[in-house]
């Protein structure tokens, strides 16, 4: 999973990345900075104690920190467009907005969303011009080009009316036609509000700009970055002093997973304990393919135990004795925390 942190200058993006990665703020402020952030998961900690594996592998989020943007003039907008083009392949966008020292979080969020609309509109306009030339030339892709042109014209109308591409792209067929373009307004969005120390715990309402369904996480970047550099004991004391219930990385990852509709299944053994992120609704057959294509191709069954059952009973042997170990077929929908051993034959 790859996410991009986007925000205006001085919004606190780099400090947020430091807080969730535990790494110092990068001095490379003029370039896209990348950190791979492990996904905190207490289940992995417990399973590691139980199985004593040679290694434990958490899920990860690949976070890209874009340089701060300014849309005050044409030069700033042109620089932002170039950055947008570099992150059109990410899975989601995290919009970092300031809510401290007089910063207007709602205005910053509105400005970012408007620039996404404009960037996508430029892309659509260019694509329409190209397609209008192509559709009149007999070719193997003529029918597909005509279908895409009709869709792009709908997108143009929506974007001109300040509606995102997601209001137009509703089917898998439509998505397949435009997937390669990486529309920004088609991507899942999440908001991180960078608040001051004094406003920790304060309720903020961005629903008028963000919408009711968008995940909004509030954190103090400076405080959270300092916490991330401490040992576990000092972290607990520091968090208690500020009334922070969980570290920034936990809140950030949980919101990313929620926004993208992700869960994790787990594999265990003496060699490795690992978390595998998948989309909600993934079948056992497709989950097997996340591990290796051979396992999917030769799928026989999925030996499954719920994490909570294993934790309660203490061992796989007890789970089997109590009827908590199940044999699931290829169409079984994997649940969050399922511990799976795939049986296969190739």
Key descriptive features of the protein:
Ubiquitin-like (UB roll); 6-stranded mixed sheet; flat; 3-stranded mixed sheet; alpha/beta; 346 residues
Would you mind describing this structure in some detail?
With 346 residues, this protein is of the alpha/beta class. The chain has a domain at 281-344: Ubiquitin-like (UB roll), CATH 3.10.20. It is 43% helix and 21% strand. The protein has helices at residues 13-21, 42-51, 74-86, 105-134, 142-160, 172-178, 207-210, 221-228, 232-242, 248-260, 284-291, 293-297, 307-313, 316-321, and strands spanning 2-7, 33-38, 55-57, 60-65, 92-99, 189-195, 215-219, 262-267, 272-279, 299-306, 325-328, 338-344. It starts with a strand and ends with a strand. The mean pLDDT is 90.
Total strand segments: 12
Round the Cα radius of gyration to an integer and report it.
Answer: 23 Å
Which architecture name of the domain at 281-344 does CATH use?
Answer: Roll
Element order: H for helix, E for strand: EHEHEEHEHHHEHEHHHEEHHEHHEE
* Average of the residue pLDDT scores: 90
The parts where pLDDT drops under 50 for at least 5 residues are none
Overall SS class: alpha/beta
The span between the termini is 29 Å
CATH fold naming of the domain at 281-344: Ubiquitin-like (UB roll)
**Number of helical runs?**
14
The biggest beta sheet is recorded as:
6 strands, mixed
The CATH homologous superfamily of the domain at 281-344 corresponds to Beta-grasp domain
Helix content: 40-55%
Shape: flat
Strand order of the largest sheet: 2-4-1-5-6-7
- Strand residues, percent: 15-25%
Broad CATH class of the domain at 281-344: Alpha Beta
GO molecular function, one term: metal ion binding
InterPro entries: ATPase_YchF/OLA1, Beta-grasp_dom_sf, GTP-bd, P-loop_NTPase, TGS, TGS-like, TGS-like_dom_sf, YchF_C
Domain TGS: 261-344
Cofactor: Mg(2+)
């Amino acid at each position: 999973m790859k996410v991009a942190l986007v925000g205006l200058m001085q919004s606190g993006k780099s400090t947020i990345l430091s807080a969730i990665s535990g790494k110092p703020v990068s001095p490379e402020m003029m370039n896209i900075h990348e950190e791979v952030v492990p996904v905190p998961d207490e289940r992995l900690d417990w399973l590691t104690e139980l199985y004593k594996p040679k290694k434990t592998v958490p899920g990860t989020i690949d976070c890209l920190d874009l340089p701060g943007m300014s849309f005050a003039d044409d030069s700033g907008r042109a620089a932002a467009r170039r950055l947008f083009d570099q992150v059109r392949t990410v899975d989601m966008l995290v919009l970092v907005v300031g809510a401290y020292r007089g910063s207007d979080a709602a205005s910053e969020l509105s400005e970012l969303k408007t620039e996404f609309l404009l960037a996508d509109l430029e892309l659509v306009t260019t694509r329409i011009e190209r397609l209008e030339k192509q559709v009149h030339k007999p070719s193997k892709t003529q029918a597909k080009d005509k279908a895409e042109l009709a869709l792009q014209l709908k997108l143009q109308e929506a974007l001109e009316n300040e509606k995102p591409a997601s209001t137009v792209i509703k089917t898998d067929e439509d998505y397949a036609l435009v997937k390669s373009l990486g529309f920004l307004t088609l991507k899942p969005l999440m908001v991180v509000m960078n608040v001051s120390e004094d406003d920790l715990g304060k309720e903020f309402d961005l629903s008028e700009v963000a919408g009711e369904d968008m995940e909004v996480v509030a954190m103090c970047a400076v405080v959270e970055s300092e916490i991330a550099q401490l040992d576990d004991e000092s972290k607990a004391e520091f968090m208690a002093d500020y009334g922070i219930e969980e570290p920034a990385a936990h809140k950030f990852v949980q919101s990313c997973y929620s926004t993208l509709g992700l869960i994790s299944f787990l594999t265990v053994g003496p060699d490795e304990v690992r978390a595998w992120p998948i989309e909600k609704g993934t079948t056992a057959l497709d989950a097997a393919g996340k591990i290796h294509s051979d396992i999917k191709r030769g799928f026989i069954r999925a030996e499954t135990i719920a994490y909570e059952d294993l934790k309660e009973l203490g061992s796989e042997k007890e789970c089997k004795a109590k009827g908590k170990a199940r044999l699931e077929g290829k169409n079984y929908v994997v649940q969050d925390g399922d511990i799976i051993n795939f049986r296969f034959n190739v």
